[in-house]
Amino acid sequence: MKKFAFLALLFFIFYIAGMYESPALMVLFLTQIFLMAVMGVLAVYLKNHLLVSFGEELVWAEKDCPFTWSLRAENSGRLPISRFCMSFRVYEKKKAGKKRKVYGDCPDPESTLFFEDTAVHCGIYIFRSENLRVYDYLALFSGKKKTENEMRVIVFPKKYQAQAEPAPAFSGREEAYQKTSTLSGNDYSEIRQVREYRDGDSVRCIHWNQTARTGQMWVKEYEEETKGQVSLYLEPKDQSSGDASGDSFYTLLYGIVSGLLEQVSAVQVYWAGKGDTKILKKEVRDDRQCRELFFFLYQTEDGLPEEKKSKRNTDYGGLEGAMRLTRDLSWYAGDRLIYRFSEEKLEEELTHKSFRIWTGDRLWGD
């Protein structure tokens, strides 16, 4: 629009200069012609010296919460860049990418620009750049070039922690559940391994000698901590079974795993991969590993054509008594239903209903 306005003004000056035979207006006209030529060459020059890419290859976000991502602009020329536009597409699962544009400038040799977005679904969003357009100082012309870089945004569900509580001892099973075996920092006799410090680890478990030698925090993990684990198996997707939305399933999974980790040392999560017989496993001991679990789930769970889903192996090693979570939001201990959650009231059920738990791969609702 600015270019057309400038051209209209140019022809108007030329018309007036010819009508009144004004040398001054003719000089102004020629000056504007020269200025347009300079701006056209300048746009090409600026375009050739600007490189714009995503600031990070991987960004972590939470569903329905704002997250920040960045662009890194590098100007190898001598002149500052007042305006550029990068076009990119955002891909969500198998949906066609939505085209978007962002504008920025690069007054220094290197500049970082920050932008804010909100993801409305769980999963992996892929931001893939397509082209870069750099404008001259009057924004009359622009130089355009293709760009090829991408950024992945890993979107986790909101965290609602299920209320899992230790069950009272049953007759003949007084030692079926020992809460002390799930707590780090107890004085056990055998050290299983030394690992890096994680948020939530007790200071009593810190390996001070190793920490002093390396300058990094290390903790001792005791053999007794391997007890009190539970297994959770995830039912494969099946479009014909009336599954709940992926967001609801992931929210429920996050809530159950987070609640279990308050009472046990680890949750072993199993699920079917994209192959016909491949069963995947991820051990979760803290919130960081829980988020890593979702990253693996997003990458490995989707993609089987419908006609092949009946061939998918759902045999998880014969541990039928372990917990499992189905796509219709049902939670089982073996064949016994613990609770069937509602997609509409999922948040309320996760935060207000309590469940009793004891180790040995079994969990019962109250």
Short précis:
With 366 residues, the chain is an alpha+beta fold. It has six helices and 20 strands. The chain has two domains: 107 residues, Immunoglobulin-like; 154 residues, no CATH class.
Describe this structure in words.
The chain has 366 residues and is α+β, with helices and mostly antiparallel strands. The chain has two domains: 50-156, Immunoglobulin-like (Sandwich); 163-178 and 228-365, no CATH class. The chain has six helices and 20 strands. Strands 2, 4, 5, 7, 8 and 9 form a six-stranded mixed β-sheet that branches. Strand 4 and strand 5 form a beta hairpin. The chain is elongated, with a radius of gyration of 30 Å. The termini are far apart. Residues 169-189, 303-318 and 359-366 have low confidence and may be disordered.
Task: Reconstruct the topology from this structure.
Layout: H1 2-20, H2 23-48, E1 50-54, E2 58-62, E3 66-75, E4 81-92, E5 98-106, E6 110-118, E7 123-135, E8 142-146, E9 150-156, E10 163-166, E11 191-196, H3 208-214, E12 218-222, E13 229-234, H4 246-260, E14 266-272, E15 279-284, H5 287-300, E16 323-325, E17 330-333, E18 336-340, H6 346-352, E19 354-358, E20 362-365
Helix pairs in contact: 1-2
